[in-house]
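R.M. (postdoc): so does anyone remember the format we settled on? I'll just put the structure tokens first.
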């Protein structure tokens, strides 16, 4: 198998793990130099090429992987002044691992095709730990032949790869559904934990009861280290990012005419926290912010 040259845009908490696994597994790698990157000494030591701008990265790449914050950043990287599409090589595959609004994804995919490239959305679930281990989950929207062709590359940094659908944006739709359930569950448990504290229920008792009953699941597993020991590191996902993802979900649900009253309530909680200046906090810390209210 010939391994294509891959350019990564967004070597942050998640993107660094993607880039590192690609480089370790023999994919010729380039990455965009950016202040938001994690330290890249390990990538450089593996022979990765640092590109000063997006056009240079595009000219050097057969596959471009995006791992940026959200829809505005995806649109800017691809469509903005000096963006990737202006220098895209014919046949280049753009893989968007970001979390984005599906309607925007459809427009971006059309622009990539018009520029002579191919597009698939492959947003991620799991955490920076699994990203570093090459064990992400990917939710992919792609035509069957492109899905099959890109599977070896995606497998270099993913443990589970789900084909969400054949239309561009199917992966992002499934990601928003996933994140609504995941982040909504964390917010719900955080509210319950804050209420338990006001009612005099010890956190270890609450966690034990939830673990042995209907509250058990990934959300509790990620939140319980903070409830029991004040450790938010197992969920290094910011309140601002959670708020962004929930806003994307609510916009999608509204556009589909789907019920979203519960989602709107979660979003309202996160809106208040961001407005109060807590956007940079790891999400588990919302327990303390809820407890301080009133």
């Amino acid at each position: 198998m010939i391994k294509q040259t891959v350019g990564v845009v967004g070597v942050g908490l998640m993107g660094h793990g993607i880039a590192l696994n690609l480089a370790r597994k023999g994919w010729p790698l380039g990455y965009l130099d950016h202040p938001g990157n994690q330290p890249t000494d390990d990538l450089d030591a593996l022979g990765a090429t640092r590109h000063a701008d997006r056009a240079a990265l595009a000219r050097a790449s057969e596959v471009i992987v995006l791992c940026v914050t959200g829809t505005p950043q995806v649109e800017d990287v691809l469509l903005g002044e000096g963006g990737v599409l202006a220098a895209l090589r014919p046949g280049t595959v753009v893989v968007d691992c970001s979390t984005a609004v599906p309607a925007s994804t459809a427009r971006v995919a059309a622009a990539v095709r018009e520029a002579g490239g191919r597009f698939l959305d492959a947003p991620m679930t799991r955490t920076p730990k699994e990203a570093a281990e090459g064990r992400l989950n990917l939710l992919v929207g792609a035509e069957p032949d492109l899905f099959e062709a890109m599977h070896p590359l995606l497998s270099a940094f993913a443990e589970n790869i789900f084909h969400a659908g054949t239309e561009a944006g199917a992966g992002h739709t499934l990601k928003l559904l996933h994140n609504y359930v995941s982040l909504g569950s964390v917010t719900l448990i955080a509210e319950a934990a804050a209420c338990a504290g006001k009612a005099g229920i010890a956190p270890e008792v609450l966690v034990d009861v939830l673990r042995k009953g209907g509250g058990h699941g990934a959300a509790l597993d990620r939140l319980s280290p903070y409830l029991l020991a004040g450790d938010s590191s197992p969920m290094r996902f910011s309140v601002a990012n959670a708020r962004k993802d929930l806003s994307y979900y609510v916009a999608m649900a509204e556009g589909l005419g789907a019920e979203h009253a519960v989602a709107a309530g979660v979003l309202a909680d996160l809106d208040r926290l961001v407005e109060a200046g807590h956007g940079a906090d790891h999400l588990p810390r919302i327990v303390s912010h809820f407890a301080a209210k009133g």
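R.M.: ...and that's the designed sequence above, right after the tokens. Also worth knowing: The first helix runs from residue 15 to 24. Strands lie at 6-9, 29-32, 49-51, 63-66, 93-96, 118-121, 124-125, 136-141, 158-165.
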